[in-house]
């Protein structure tokens, strides 16, 4: 919490340079805590705020040496700024039952933003959390750039507007109460949804909901609560959807009961992105039990049935002539050769007689961001309009592209955003929604499309293969230069900033547009968090034939792993302890604090048996900093564990992770995101990748793609949420991955005495029997009653 | 079409559906019981984990025709009724569900019905065998959580076991 006595004076705000006037303020931000919002007329009280009233981020703070771009302006500033030209309202409604409701123009995919948003509203309104209901807004095209859930930006960009809307509601309620109770606003106390006058007379928000609306539309000035007065924000709080989740009542797309929307699946080609030419046995498949429709569409052959089981039978029975996809015949090795051929020469290093070079060349294989809830969508396309339901992080561009596909005006396509069972970047795209719309139009019937796991794993989007080369120049005990060059298969950013204008810009011919976008994202997210003299980081992308996207934390995991392994090498060269080396070259006090915290709490340097070791790494992104210390066991008794249909291998036995995310709205949710990120980091380092063979990925399910499981997860995990000097929140959803991945890689190198150069470390051996490609999906087993436990 | 009769969450049901349709689809697509989730359809992810006659099983791997009229299926929706009302917690739920709430386990929540059903069966099995839950027992759980909630799952199972 800030200790500043006068929060109204920008000069006293942490992170803002003394004497420097903030720039880029909109008229709505009177100062850091006073804003203009609106009371809107309606059946009950509706309070609104402009979603773009956040003022410009402070520039120039805490940078003693030449700053890298993300330090002064990062991806989150871009996402926030992209929203600036639009003017659009978000609304908090007070209902007659005394509850408040709010439609969040973002996607909840497990990251906890409905909870943190409800907490902000409850805080500002002085209402119990269980009386605030946050739902997801459908596509609102008027929001333009401002309905994209990505870059861990939700809390950063909505923190102030959400509070302003709630504060406006509170003020309108107080004003209505003042009239009713015959007092002044200043004399009243609002608490727990009840407003009380000095004499004890009181009135509830519910009783005031209609009266407060009666004054009609007007602009009002409100003062937000000081962070020092927060009672709920900053307190560890359980998720608002937890009861629904543990009782089975939480609905995901395929759980929705949309009349007539029968189960639908697609039969896909034996090579990646192959396309159907003709169906040889359509009539036969149409006559199978339960089948209602069979239709050839652009991505394959769709079947619709009474049950998904019958869809699986039909997909397996279909006899289809296919045209090969664009990577037919290719494999990991051929793609890696192409990536290597695209590598640029590394920048020249300073050349002095005493200079020594430390270098590394790392390969990162394809990885999948398949969530537990496979790609799915419900589509009801009629001749005069369409309705779509899906988990969508960019619903506006989805609506626009679906309208194009259907040949309809965008306003004829209603796109509803459904909570999704995980995203990991995948739901930035809308592959299933677009496909479901096409199928529903072709069949003339509503469809509930669900991708089979085999398709979700093999055909769904993922993290592209890439190489990362690092070179550093050492003179004595100084690092004079640090160069890092990432070369990878293209990351698809064709969702743009969530609407069709920038999406179209990313879709310019020959990938020029997407590359420009990728370069921008790379430049805005990557930095080397050490004082290493001349730092150069470059990105080259090549090959746009794969289904990729911004997998959780985008470029950072690979870049940071390569960087931190070389940092350990530099430390060794200078005969320094890895932790002390990181301290010495640290220039950011927040990073130093998280580093020291994990070193102490995680007992850095304690004696450990041969074959086990610690590894330590740091990361800075999303306006936050993190450090991770892991312990790994690579002894044969551990790596030799036999578990059916599984990869065991080295086990991370202990993790200590510290994060300073700025103001942590919900430390409990933040801790959960870090715990998830730790398991992602372990998977990326040790077990999970995709193998491309003969034009298709082999991994067809969870017994092939080895995401971290209970036998891999560390029995001892400690996440420390740091008290922060920052008064604004940073991003949380992705922040746990990079440092964890890097720390595991460093620990593995120290335990085995060999620095790994490809990730995951087990990619070289295939640990499963690949499932067939024709038919494209496996049949369900029948022996489940013999396997009860 | 064949008639399939069995008991689900305490109620006897009869459904007209082919023998070979897996129970998961009968529950989800025909009976509207959507707590058991689809995550693979081949008995590897365990998202569909439910109970049959008190033991954990995976309905994606059971043709509905194999069920008898007296087989009792319990899905997450029916779990609270498996204990006496006096054993239920603050939310009127099964002790394991209450532990899940106290530990705030769920992230996206998709895998969690299956995780809870597997956890209850594991605790029952371990206590049938006269033991208490160990790290080694927790390591045997096959349910995937792609959000990586494993740390809290482990805590919640130990907590839930103490309450059961
Ligand atoms: S859906 Fe049944 S185990 Fe995966
Ligand atoms: S909570 Fe999302 S898959 Fe487990």
What's the helix and strand layout?
The complex is a heterodimer of chains A (789) and B (164).
Chain A (H helix, E strand, L loop, with lengths): L33 E7 L5 E5 L18 H4 L2 H8 L6 E6 L5 E5 L8 H13 L6 E5 L17 H28 L7 E3 L2 E3 L5 E3 H9 L4 E6 L18 H6 L14 E6 L7 E5 L2 H5 L4 E7 L2 E6 L2 H10 L2 E4 L8 H11 L13 E9 L2 E2 L7 E7 L2 E6 L4 H12 L6 E5 L13 H13 L3 E4 L2 H6 L3 E2 L2 E10 L2 E12 L10 H7 L5 H14 L8 E9 L13 H18 L4 H7 L4 H13 L10 E10 L2 E10 L2 H4 L11 E10 L6 H21 L4 E2 L2 E2 L18 E6 L15 H16 L5 E2 L30
Parallel strand pairs in A: 4-5, 10-20, 15-31, 18-19, 23-24, 27-30
Antiparallel strand pairs in A: 1-2, 1-9, 2-3, 3-4, 6-7, 7-8, 10-13, 11-14, 12-13, 15-22, 16-21, 17-18, 17-20, 22-23, 25-26, 26-27, 28-29
Chain B lengths: L2 E6 L2 E6 L6 H8 L19 E3 L2 E3 L14 E3 L20 H8 L9 H17 L6 H5 L10 H14 L1
Parallel strand pairs in B: 1-5
Antiparallel strand pairs in B: 1-2, 3-4, 3-5
Helix pairs in contact in B: 2-5, 3-5
Bound molecules: FE2/S2 (inorganic) cluster (FES) (2 copies).
Can you describe what's shown?
The complex is a heterodimer of chains A (789) and B (164). Chain A has 789 residues and is of the alpha+beta class. Chain A has three domains: 17-56 and 66-232, 2-Layer Sandwich (Aldehyde Oxidoreductase, domain 4); 260-326 and 369-455, Aldehyde Oxidoreductase, domain 4 (2-Layer Sandwich), CATH 3.30.365; 342-367 and 461-759, Aldehyde Oxidoreductase, domain 4, CATH 3.30.365. In chain A, 29% of the residues lie in helices and 23% in strands. Chain A is built from 20 helices and 31 strands. In chain A, helix 4 packs across helix 5 and helix 10 packs parallel to helix 11. Chain A starts with 33 loop residues before the first strand and ends in a 30-residue tail after the last strand. Mean pLDDT of chain A is 88; it is low at 1-28 and 54-67. In chain B, strand 3 (50-52) and strand 4 (55-57) form a beta hairpin. In chain B, helix 3 packs across helix 5 (150-163). Chain B folds into two domains: 3-75, Ubiquitin-like (UB roll); 78-163, DNA polymerase, domain 1 (Orthogonal Bundle). Chain B is α+β, with helices and mostly antiparallel strands. Chain B is 32% helix and 13% strand. Chain B is built from five helices and five strands, in the order E-E-H-E-E-E-H-H-H-H. The interface between A and B is large, with 76 and 78 residues. One FE2/S2 (inorganic) cluster (FES) binds next to loops of chain B.
């Amino acid at each position: 919490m800030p200790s500043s006595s006068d929060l109204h004076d920008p000069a006293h705000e942490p992170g803002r340079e003394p004497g420097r006037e903030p720039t880029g303020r909109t008229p709505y931000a009177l100062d850091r805590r006073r804003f203009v919002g609106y009371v809107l007329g309606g059946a009950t009280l509706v309070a609104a705020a402009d979603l773009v009233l956040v003022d410009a981020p402070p520039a120039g703070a805490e940078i003693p040496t030449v700053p890298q771009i993300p330090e002064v302006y990062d991806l989150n500033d871009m996402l926030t700024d992209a929203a600036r030209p639009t003017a659009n309202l978000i609304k908090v409604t007070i209902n007659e039952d005394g509850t408040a409701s709010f439609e969040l123009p973002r996607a909840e995919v497990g990251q906890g933003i409905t909870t943190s948003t409800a907490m902000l509203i409850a805080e500002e309104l002085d209402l119990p959390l269980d009386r605030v209901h946050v739902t997801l807004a459908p596509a609102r095209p008027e929001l333009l750039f401002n309905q994209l859930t990505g870059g861990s930006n939700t809390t950063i960009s909505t923190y102030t507007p959400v509070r302003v809307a709630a504060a406006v509601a509170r003020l309108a309620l107080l004003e209505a109460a003042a009239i009713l109770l015959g007092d002044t606003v200043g004399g009243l106390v609002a608490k727990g949804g009840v407003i009380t006058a000095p004499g004890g007379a009181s009135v509830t928000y519910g009783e005031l909901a209609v009266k407060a609306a009666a004054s009609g539309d007007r602009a009002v000035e409100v003062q937000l609560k000081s962070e020092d007065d927060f009672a709920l924000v900053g307190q560890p709080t359980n998720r608002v959807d937890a009861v629904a989740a543990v009782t089975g009542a939480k609905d995901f797309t395929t759980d929705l009961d949309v009349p007539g929307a029968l189960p639908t699946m697609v039969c896909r080609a034996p090579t990646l992105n192959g396309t159907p030419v003709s169906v040889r046995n359509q009539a036969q498949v149409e006559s199978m039990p339960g089948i209602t429709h069979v239709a050839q569409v652009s991505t394959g052959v769709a079947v619709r049935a009474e049950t998904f089981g019958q869809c699986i039978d039909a997909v397996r029975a279909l006899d289809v002539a296919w045209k090969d996809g664009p990577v037919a015949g290719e494999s990991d090795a051929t793609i890696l050769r192409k990536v290597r051929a695209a590598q640029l020469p590394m920048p020249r290093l300073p050349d002095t007689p005493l200079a020594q070079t430390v270098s590394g060349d790392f390969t990162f294989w394809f990885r999948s961001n398949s969530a537990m809830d496979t790609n799915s969508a419900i589509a009801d396309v009629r001749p005069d309009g369409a309705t779509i339901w899906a988990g969508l992080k960019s619903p506006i561009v989805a609506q626009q592209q679906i309208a194009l596909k259907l040949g309809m005006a965008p306003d004829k396509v209603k796109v509803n955003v459904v909570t999704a069972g995980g995203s990991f970047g995948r739901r930035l795209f809308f592959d299933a929604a677009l496909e479901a719309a096409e199928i529903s139009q072709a069949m003339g019937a509503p469809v509930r499309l669900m991708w089979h796991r085999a398709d979700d794993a093999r055909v769904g989007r993922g993290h592209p293969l890439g190489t990362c080369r690092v070179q550093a120049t050492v003179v004595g005990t100084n690092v004079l230069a640090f160069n890092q060059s990432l070369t990878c298969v293209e990351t698809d950013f064709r969702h743009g900033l969530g609407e069709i204008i920038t999406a179209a810009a990313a879709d310019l011919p020959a990938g020029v547009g997407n590359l420009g976008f990728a370069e921008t994202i790379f430049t805005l997210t990557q930095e080397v968090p050490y004082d290493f003299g001349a730092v150069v980081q470059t990105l080259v992308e090549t090959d746009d034939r794969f289904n990729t996207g911004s997998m959780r934390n985008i470029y950072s995991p690979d870049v940071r792993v390569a960087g931190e392994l070389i940092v350990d090498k530099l430390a060794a060269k200078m005969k320094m302890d890895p932790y002390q080396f990181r301290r010495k070259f640290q220039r950011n006090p927040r990073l130093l604090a998280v580093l020291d915290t994990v070193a102490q709490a995680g007992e850095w340097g304690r004696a450990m048996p041969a074959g086990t070791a610690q590894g330590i790494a740091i990361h800075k992104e999303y306006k936050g900093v993190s450090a991770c210390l892991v312990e790994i066991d690579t002894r044969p008794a551990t790596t030799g564990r036999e578990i059916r249909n599984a990869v065991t291998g080295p086990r991370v036995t202990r993790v200590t992770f510290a994060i300073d995310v700025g103001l942590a709205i919900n430390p409990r949710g933040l801790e959960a995101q870090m715990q998830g990120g730790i398991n992602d980091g372990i998977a990326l380092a040790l077990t999970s990748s995709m193998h491309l063979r003969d034009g298709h990925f082999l991994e067809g399910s969870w017994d092939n793609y080895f995401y971290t499981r209970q036998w891999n997860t560390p029995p001892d995990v400690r996440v420390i949420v740091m008290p922060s000097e920052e008064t604004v929140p940073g991003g949380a959803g992705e922040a746990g991955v990079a440092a964890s991945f890097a720390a595991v890689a460093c620990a593995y190198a120290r335990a085995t005495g060999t620095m790994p150069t490809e990730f995951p470390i087990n990619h070289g051996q295939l640990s499963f029997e690949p499932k067939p490609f024709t038919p494209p999906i496996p049949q369900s087993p029948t022996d489940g009653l013999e396997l009860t436990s | 079409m064949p008639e399939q009769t069995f008991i689900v969450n305490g109620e006897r049901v009869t459904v007209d559906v082919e023998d070979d349709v897996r129970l998961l689809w009968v529950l989800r697509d025909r009976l509207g019981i959507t707590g058991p989730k689809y995550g693979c359809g081949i008995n590897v992810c365990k998202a569909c984990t439910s109970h049959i006659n008190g033991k954990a099983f995976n309905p994606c791997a059971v043709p509905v025709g194999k069920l008898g009229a007296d087989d009792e299926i319990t899905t997450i929706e029916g779990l609270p009724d498996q204990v006496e009302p006096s054993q239920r917690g603050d939310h009127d739920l099964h002790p394991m569900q209450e532990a899940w709430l106290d530990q705030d386990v769920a992230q996206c929540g998709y895998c969690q019905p299956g995780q809870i059903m597997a956890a209850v069966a594991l605790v029952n099995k371990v206590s049938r065998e006269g033991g208490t839950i160990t790290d080694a027992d927790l390591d045997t759980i096959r349910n995937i959580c792609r959000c990586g909630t494993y740390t809290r799952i482990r805590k919640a199972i130990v907590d839930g076991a103490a309450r059961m």
